[in-house]
Amino acid sequence: MRAIASLLTLSLICAGFTARADTSGQTAALNDYPTAARADYVFACMTTNGQTREALGRCACAIDTIAAAIPYADYEKAETILRMRHEAGGYLAQEFRIPASNTMLRQLQEAQAEADVSCF
Question: Taking 50 as the threshold, does the pLDDT of residue 10 lie above it?
Answer without folding.
Answer: no
